[in-house]
Amino acid sequence: MGSGGVSDWLDGIIGEATVSPFETILLVVLLSGALMIVFYAIRTGVPPQSSGRAARQALLHLLPDTIDGPIVDLGSGWGALVEDIGERYPENLVVGYELSPIPYWISCLRLKLKTRPNVEYRRADFLKADLSEFRAATCYLMIGAMKPLASKLLELPDGAVVVSNAFSLHGWEADETITLSVTGATNYYRYIVRRDPGA
């Protein structure tokens, strides 16, 4: 087939293709959503990721049986971990902070479909939020976000528990670390906030 034949063939296909207004709107919405997710991933340095079931179970294992106060998930993504924490601690307020709008909206939608009165989401930058009310924190971030987080977590009250998926806290000594082969030999870390180094 010559170059003219290829051109005629492509013109025939394109000429026959029809896109409805609904399909056009749907394509624009999907593309806009994808671009928004990419924009916030670049801005925060953390793409919205969902912890798998095994990872969530590991994080829950590292949390104490009871927690005397609210719990926060920093960078809550699509909301799966927040929901699991809310189910395990029905008497505790569980807050998910998520800056990226698409995962935040989906988390809120999931909450409307399956109501949990002790769970709420806040669309905000947790590095600018007041974390002093929380007695436990979980996170699944990237290594670049862990350094500023390490100093931010000092706002938590003394004795508060911090659990991290995959990435350690810069300058902190883990109270316990577990490794799961089913999640690719991923490490899960537990820290205790201690302002007195000798404590």
In short:
40% of the residues lie in helices and 17% in strands. By secondary structure, it is an alpha/beta fold.
Describe the structure.
It is a single chain. This protein has 199 residues and is α/β, with parallel strands linked by helices. The chain folds into two domains: 3-44; 53-192, Vaccinia Virus protein VP39 (Rossmann fold, 3-Layer(aba) Sandwich). Helices cover 40% and strands 17% of the residues. It is built from six helices and seven strands, in the order αααβαβαββαβββ. It has helices spanning 3-16, 21-44, 53-62, 80-88, 101-113, 143-152, and strands at 71-74, 94-97, 119-122, 136-139, 161-165, 176-180, 186-192. It has a seven-stranded mixed beta sheet with strand order 3-2-1-4-5-7-6, covered by helices on one side. Strand 4, helix 6 and strand 5 form a beta-alpha-beta unit. The longest helix is centred in the first third of the chain and has 24 residues, at 21-44. It is globular and about 75 Å long. It starts with a helix and ends in a 7-residue tail after the last strand. The relative contact order is 0.14. The model has no long low-confidence stretch (mean pLDDT 84).
Helix content: 40-55%
**Which architecture name of the largest domain does CATH use?**
3-Layer(aba) Sandwich
Helix-strand makeup class = alpha/beta
The CATH topology of the largest domain is Rossmann fold
Low-confidence stretches: none
Amount of beta strand: 15-25%
How many separate helices?
6
Indicate the radius of gyration in whole angstroms: 22 Å
Can you tell me the overall shape?
globular
